[in-house]
Here is the input.
Amino acid sequence: MKFDSIIVGGGIAGLICGIRCAAAGLKCTIISSGMSALHFASGSIDLLGRSPNGDIIYDPFSQLPTFIDQYPQHPYAKCGETVIAESLSFFTREIEEQSLQLCHNEQNNHFHLTTFGTLTPTYLSQQSVYSPELDRAFTESRKMALLDFEGFRDFHIPLVKANLPQHTLFKNREIITGTVPLTPLIESLKNPHEFRSIDISRMFETEKHLLQIAKSIDQLAGDGEIVGLPACVGFIKHNEVYSRLQKLTGRLIYEIPTLPPSILGMRLDHHLKSRFSELGGVFIAGDKVIGGKIQSGRLSEIYTQNHESTPLQADAFVLASGSFFSGGLISEFSGMKEPVFDLALSYEKDRKDWAADQFFQAESHPYLEFGVKTNEQLNPFDSSGQPIDNLYCAGALLAGYNPIREGSGGGVAISTGYYAAENIIKANAPIGAERHD
Here is the structure.
């Protein structure tokens, strides 16, 4: 099988790369071995949340030039400010084509509440997490209801409520708590304690359940004008359910990320895949790339577990297989490796330099900065140090950045995925193909 571009990895970097390629008229496929990290993510997109000394960054775009000068090997430095801005605009537009609204605070970061009751800076969030309306309400309203669901184990009100007063926004705010009953709604043999976020989100998408849940929320919230709920307010039909719930309760609904599986992240995953398919992209799920043929500095074909005897060929390839969590990088006693093409890596050779002394150390762990080395166009190097000029790398497997310390994970994934696609389009777009910029 022959394609214009083949992308290895179905996470946010791979998907945005695939959408950009497909939108430009390229015949594109994404090969994904399993569930992406989006199922475990907050569902918000971080751009640059903290400075190198740990200070919160409120205006990331104004800080990017200095940051890029300070870290010339950072993925942001290779993409450049223009590409970063373009990629985020493109990402927002393509998601909205699937009717999932993303909001930002002009050029500034906003804060979203975590499942532990802490606040963290981010750049883009779904409308149920941040919107101008919610922003005004949090400034003007003094009462908030914080509710969970009967038996739900992936969200803990006592933990959230204990941490909230540490933040100015919640310091003097009255918080009403309660639990929405689910037992009357259960029509199966399932116990509420077995319910995960996806089960509850499906209940929200059933009209009679939505009416009963809304009634319970109305009773439990008292005179709270904002209602904080675990992020379960619909999955496929989120917009419709969210709007309906606010009308039924007469309150603003604020979604808080839960422990995995994350409905907020799963929404992004679903809508990005839908957009890719809508543009004509081919998504191959449940297969794993196990190697490829590299000759004279070019990758000509790859092999997968399910099609080992049938190579997949393309003019260009993108490796967006993730970091250690997704198996894109592998740690061994003797060192580290990239398992598909044995690409050159940047990492400390002494294992004692891989991790910080404390798990929750503010500076985070050094291993998060390890990864594949690339040139300025995101082409990696083979084991002998030669660049592979039609292979690009994007997302979490890249070296030179720390997504936890910087608060930059989503921004790096989107900008490098987009930048890889732009480089492919310039080299491989069919003559006369329509460009959807």
In short: DSSP finds twelve helices and 19 strands in the chain. Residues 51 and 75 are 16 Å apart (CA to CA). The radius of gyration is 22 Å.
